[in-house]
Structure formats: C-alpha cells, structure tokens
Amino acid sequence: MNEKFFDLKKEKQDRIINAALKAFALGGYMHASTDDIVKMAGISKGLIFHYFDTKLGLYQFVYDYSTRVILLEMTTGISKDVTDFFTIREQIEKTISLCMQQYPYIQLFMYRAEVENVPEAASAILQTRQSYERIMDGVLARGDITRFKDGANYELVSNVVDMTRRGILEKMFQEGVFQPEVYLEESLRYMDMMRKLSYN
Question: Distance between CA 94 and CA 74 in Å, rounded?
C-alpha cells in the first residue's frame, strides 16, 4: 500500500476503512464491490487504487489494520495479572466492544476472514492471521481451569462462549440494531450465566 494513506485526515481514513470493513464483512472478498466501498466512503474509485493498488491490497490492509487496532486495545484492556477463565474473556469482549465503537464492522469482518474461501485473499492474510491467533491463544491460555466442575469441559465451554458472542453479533447486524454497548451487555450476560453453570 501507499504509506501516504496515513497522511489523509483521520476522519477520511476511517471512512475508507469502515466502508471496506463493512463490504468485506457482509460480502466476503468475492462479493465485496469496490464501487460500493467508494460510494460508502464518499471518495473516487481512483483514490482507492492510488493508495492500495488493488482490491486485494485493500483487503490485506484492512485485515492487518484490524489486528493492530484490536491488539493495541488489548495492551491496556487486558490485565496480565488476571487469570480467571471468564474474566479474561470478559476483558477481551470489552476490548472488542471499544474497537467497534470506532469501527462497527471490525469483529464481523474478522469472523468472515476466518472462513474466507477465495485462495488469493486467504493467502494474503495468512501470516498476519496466524500471528494474531497465536497471540489470542496465548492470552486465553492464561485462564485458570481449576475452578471448573467435574464434567464441565472447559474447551467446550470456551467454544460455546465463542459461538454465543458470534451469534449475538451476527443477529444484531441482521436486525439492523447493532450498538456496541448493547452487544457487550448481552455477551457479558451469557458469560456470567456460563460461569455460574461451570464453576464449583
């Protein structure tokens, strides 16, 4: 990408990033249209290609940018001293919610990128995605599992938490009622219930 993109006013940068996030989150790489992106961003099509060369370049940029935004928020939003299995997940959720206040489609885009099936797009983000997942796995691995009841499989519980938060997010966008603070409140409510069911 052309580093002069960052010379643009932050408001214009964010308009372009948010337009791309929305298009790629809703349509995946294949169906995301650069025409739709420039229309949502209120810019010329030539500007997209001036800064990112290709649609693939834009996709790779917004993925890299999204991981940086989330991980940067995590440095202050997730305490290294916390080891409770659910508290770590709650802090991650609060971090993601903060990111979504500025970039509403960022987490939906990250979910979509996990299952991206266009080979060139999946390949373009593979290295960054693997690095991001390693960091996230490392944070989650700090979770203390000794408080779980006998028979409460912590891996299954973790999967349920992940599927629940994803389901809440997708439902809110489908219904056109997405609000980061409402999403966070609902996600934490489910996590609190899972804690009560899983812990001794």
Answer: 9
For domain 3-198, give the CATH superfamily: Tetracycline Repressor, domain 2 (1.10.357.10)
**Which residues, listed in sequence order, are joined to residue 102 by a DSSP beta bridge?**
none
The residue ranking higher by pLDDT, 188 or 4, is: 188
Task: Record the pTM.
Answer: 0.94
- All residues at 6 or more sequence positions from 37 whose CB lies less than 8 Å from its CB, including other chains: 16, 19, 20, 23, 48, 58
Confidence of residue 3 (pLDDT cuts 50, 70, 90): confident
pLDDT of 1 reads 77
DSSP conformation letters of 81-102: T--BHHHHHHHHHHHHHHHHHH
Specify the 3-state DSSP secondary structure of 84: strand
pLDDT at site 19:
98
CB atoms within 10 A of CB 159: 11
Q: What are the domain boundaries of the chain?
A: 3-198
Average pLDDT of the chain, as a whole number: 95
pLDDT at 98 over 80: yes
| Partner residues linked to 137 by β-bridges | none
Identity of the amino acid at 75: T
Nearest to residue 71, comparing CAs of 104, 96, 88, 35?
96
Return the C-alpha torsion angle 113, 115, 116, 118, nearest 10. 170
Position 72: which residue type? L
Residue 56 CA to residue 174 CA, distance in Å, equals 26
